[in-house]
Design goal:
Layout lengths: L3 E2 L2 E2 H12 L3 E4 L3 E8 L3 H11 L8 E4 L5 E6 L7 H8 L13 H11 E3 L4 E3 L6 H15 L3 E6 L2 E6 L1 H11 L17
Antiparallel strand pairs: 1-2, 3-4, 4-6, 5-6, 7-8, 8-10, 9-10
Helix pairs in contact: 1-4
Length: 192
């Protein structure tokens, strides 16, 4: 798995960062835990995350009926000291926010598999759960670190990041090696 960050491998660190940036949620008492929760249709994706994080999990992923008809597929890690820094960074203010973080291609791929979508040729990063300032900082970081241009796009009463068509193609090239096959439908149709 490569280099380690604390007692996490670099790959695990990037997957956790992308997950919390996306649909993942955390809770903390003495130590933090991570909950990975997607629709049952994304079972393979949840299993992929579990495969990478299984040493931190006691109970394997399972199906669970939510309110209404939706069936979720999820797992929860144990409460662990090594996860607590993620909780402090993302939830330290009491509300989920975007801390200073490293956006690697793997981190961006997990974030996109969690919260990405597309129009015909442009990609969106749905970040409606974050404050506008957090979204602006991430947009600036994408521009500065990866030369990816975009803007904040209004989605009902919230905003999301919309990458330009050209940057969508570059973003797709960056994340493609890490994207699970079933998420190919989220990528732009045209190629450079």
């Amino acid at each position: 798995m490569g280099n380690t960050v604390g007692s996490l491998s670099e790959v695990q660190h990037q997957i956790i960062t992308g997950t919390v940036l996306g649909d993942g949620s955390m809770r903390c008492r003495a130590n933090a835990l991570l909950e990975v929760n997607h629709s049952f249709a994304q079972k393979n994706y949840v299993d992929w995350k579990h495969d990478h994080l299984s040493e931190f999990v006691l109970t394997p992923p399972g199906a669970r009926r939510t309110n209404g008809r939706r069936i979720a597929y999820r797992f929860v890690t144990r409460s662990l000291l090594i996860l607590t820094p993620f909780y402090r960074l993302f939830y330290g203010s009491g509300k989920k926010r975007v801390p200073e973080l490293e956006l690697t291609p793997l981190t961006m791929a997990v974030w996109f598999m969690d919260d990405g979508s597309k129009s015909t040729n442009a990609l969106y990063l749905n970040m409606q759960q974050f404050e506008l300032g957090d979204q602006r900082r991430l947009l600036d970081q994408l521009r500065e670190e990866w030369s990816l241009d975009g803007n904040l796009n209004r989605d009902k009463q919230y905003h999301r990041i919309r990458l330009s068509v050209e940057s969508s193609l570059r973003f797709a090239d960056l994340i493609r090696p890490h994207l699970l096959d079933e998420f190919g439908y989220k990528l732009p149709l045209m190629t450079p």
